[in-house]
């Protein structure tokens, strides 16, 4: 019952077109307000640089030839490099190139699938100094948590893609990420990079691992691939096939 | 109250889903035929009190007594202190009236020792066969759903990227709202 006396506070904002929530747990969660504000500011900065929706984002100015890479924000080359790295690590199943533009449908470079996890993970750095407090960051369904000593683990529910609102499995996490990719809410938006067509074999893939960015990248890759085969050491997955069949990696913790 | 609020919100959500499901899988004409005037035969549920789904033993409990029940529960759960204790300890809690495509719906949950022990329907869309149908068909599903959620009792939800519209209806939104 000691767990029950932990105070908990939540903050929610709409950033990068996503509902992002931060929960802080500990003796004085309200004291985290400034750090949480910096976290959201960091996410908004990332959106200003990388949004494929905003005409004035650096990404779109770069695409239109109005901005040279050397004049772009210092995070731009880093993210482009990471996109290449993600393509290599997933044997091509995650590919930011040639994705349909969210507004026009024309093929373009869209690093969003990596930027979300990258930005969330980076922004969570602002919570690092909260001694004695644990936190849980949820960016549109991708989760990164950190626990304080003596606290219970965070219980992360995996949403049933066939019935959003229902919980399929529960994973207890003290530190690290759970990311889920699928088409439950936005229709088929995962593209098979080898055919350029929407990937449809899988309803959702959840990946548990130390890094939110890599968990998300591998979840997207596994959804495109229709299999958990390519997960690296330290990462495990839960896959819900189109027909509802659930498969998990042998080391899936739930 | 946080956990109770969450349970209530998700329970109402489940009931709304049940209604939508029913609408999309059954011929709508069924509902029309069911409307009271269309049936010559007496409809047994017509005059039944709206609170009939409550189990025996709960009937004597009025809305007006809920606050008192909370206090009793708080005393019972006593030594831990803190405002969550009283909510966990027990009582019957009524959800807000939710508008569904079929009409207004209001549910209650009964909590004892911090666990949901019963789910009831206080208000259901009118129509003679309607209420009984909810009791016989939807209520067990609803109850199972609420109990399943309780056993899950999660801190956060990982799912495919939510849109803002989807978020408003989501379990994550209920969890966030309970902690704001």
UniProtKB/TrEMBL annotation, chain A:
The gene is apbE. The keyword Flavoprotein applies. It catalyses: L-threonyl-[protein] + FAD = FMN-L-threonyl-[protein] + AMP + H(+). This is FAD:protein FMN transferase. SUPFAM superfamilies: ApbE-like. Keywords: FAD, Flavoprotein, Magnesium, Metal-binding, Transferase. Pfam families: ApbE. Its cofactor is Mg(2+). It is an enzyme of class 2 (transferase). Its EC number is 2.7.1.180. It comes from Spirilliplanes yamanashiensis. InterPro entries: ApbE, ApbE-like_sf. GO terms for molecular function: metal ion binding; transferase activity.
UniProtKB/TrEMBL annotation, chain B:
Residues 58-74 have a biased composition (Acidic residues). One of its GO terms (cellular component) is membrane. GO terms for molecular function: FMN binding. Coiled coil: none annotated. It holds the Pfam family FMN_bind. Residues 26-102 are annotated as: Disordered. Residues 100-178 form the FMN-binding domain. This is FMN-binding protein.
């Amino acid at each position: 019952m000691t767990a029950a006396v932990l105070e908990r506070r939540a903050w929610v904002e709409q950033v990068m077109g996503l509902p992002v929530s931060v929960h802080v747990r500990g003796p004085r969660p309200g004291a985290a307000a400034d750090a949480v504000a910096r976290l959201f500011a960091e996410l908004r900065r990332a959106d200003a640089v990388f949004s494929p929706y905003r005409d004035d984002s650096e990404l779109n100015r770069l695409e239109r030839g109005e901005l040279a890479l050397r004049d772009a924000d210092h995070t731009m080359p880093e993210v482009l490099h990471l996109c290449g790295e993600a393509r290599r690590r997933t044997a091509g199943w995650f590919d930011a190139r040639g994705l349909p533009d969210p507004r026009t449908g024309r093929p373009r470079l869209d690093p969003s699938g990596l930027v979300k996890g990258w930005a969330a993970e980076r922004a969570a750095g602002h919570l690092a100094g909260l001694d004695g407090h644990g936190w849980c960051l949820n960016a549109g369904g991708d989760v990164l948590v950190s626990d304080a000593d003596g606290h219970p683990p965070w219980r992360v529910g995996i949403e049933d893609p066939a019935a959003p609102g229902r919980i399929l499995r529960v994973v207890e996490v003290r530190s690290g990420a759970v990311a889920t990719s699928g088409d439950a809410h936005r229709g088929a938006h995962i593209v098979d990079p080898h055919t350029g067509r929407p990937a449809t074999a899988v309803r959702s893939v959840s990946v548990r691992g130390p890094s939110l960015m890599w968990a998300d990248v591998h979840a997207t890759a596994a959804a495109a691939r229709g299999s958990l085969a390519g997960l690296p050491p330290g990462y495990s997955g839960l896959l819900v096939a189109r027909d509802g069949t659930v498969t998990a990696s042998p080391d899936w913790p739930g | 109250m946080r956990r109770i609020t969450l349970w209530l919100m998700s329970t109402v959500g489940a009931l709304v889903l049940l209604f939508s499901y029913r609408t999309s899988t059954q011929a709508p004409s069924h509902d029309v035929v069911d409307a009271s005037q269309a049936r010559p035969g007496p409809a047994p549920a017509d005059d039944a009190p709206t609170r009939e789904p409550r189990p025996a033993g709960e009937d004597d409990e009025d809305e007006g007594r809920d606050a008192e029940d909370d206090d009793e529960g708080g005393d019972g759960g006593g030594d831990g202190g803190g405002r969550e204790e009283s909510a966990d300890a027990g009582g019957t809690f009524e959800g807000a009236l939710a508008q569904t495509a079929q009409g207004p719906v209001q549910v209650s949950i009964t909590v004892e020792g911090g666990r949901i022990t019963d789910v009831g329907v206080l208000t259901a869309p009118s129509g003679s066969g309607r209420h009984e149908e909810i009791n016989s068909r939807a209520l067990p599903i609803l109850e199972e759903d609420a109990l399943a959620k309780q056993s899950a009792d999660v801190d956060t939800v990982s799912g495919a990227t939510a849109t803002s519209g989807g978020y408003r209806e989501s379990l994550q939104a209920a969890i966030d709202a309970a902690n704001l």
